[in-house]
Write a structure and sequence with these properties.
The chain is α/β, with parallel strands linked by helices and 208 residues long. The chain contains 7 helices and 7 strands. α1 links the parallel β1 and β2.
Amino acid sequence: MAHILHLDSSARTTGSYSRQLTREFVETWLKLTPQDTVTYRDLNTTPLPFIDQQWISAVFNPSTPPTAQEQSALTVSDLLIDELMAADVLVFGVPIYNFSVPASFKAYLDQVIRMGRTARFTSSGPEGLVKGKQAYVITASGSDFSQEPFKSLDHHTPYIKTVLNFIGITDVTFIRHHGYTPEAQQENLAAARKDIETLTREGQLTSV
């Protein structure tokens, strides 16, 4: 039995292709293995705090006993990391905003990329501690960032790959939707759904 962490970060609560496709991905997965379980988090309707001085002091001064304020500052981070560690499969809806990720998703990453919990430094370099996960990142954008002239402006895909790899998540697959016109949107929606059908079946072969 696999556990899924389903996360949405779109600022749109209606009319969002990334939300629609993450939902369809999870629904398709559960049709195949209905015994699997899901934790859902909406980063837009339940925004996360940004890290601050108390958070940084608690994480980077481990030799000093943390103050009550520092311990409190890590409460959200601890919860999010526990959710991440408990999951076998990650389904992240992350639209492209201004060539990168939404601020809500950046706030999430800042909370879960944490020395001693999800990564550590060794004599041979950094080591990710979040291992054995499958990550599916569903993106949505007006332009096609897989092709020029926008491909060279894409700071979204390489950034997500970098941070996930840094904490040990190396099995990362992107499902993309794009299009300005209704015709292009529907055409690419059909293509994304076909990818979902294929990837959910393939993913379940390696999820447990």
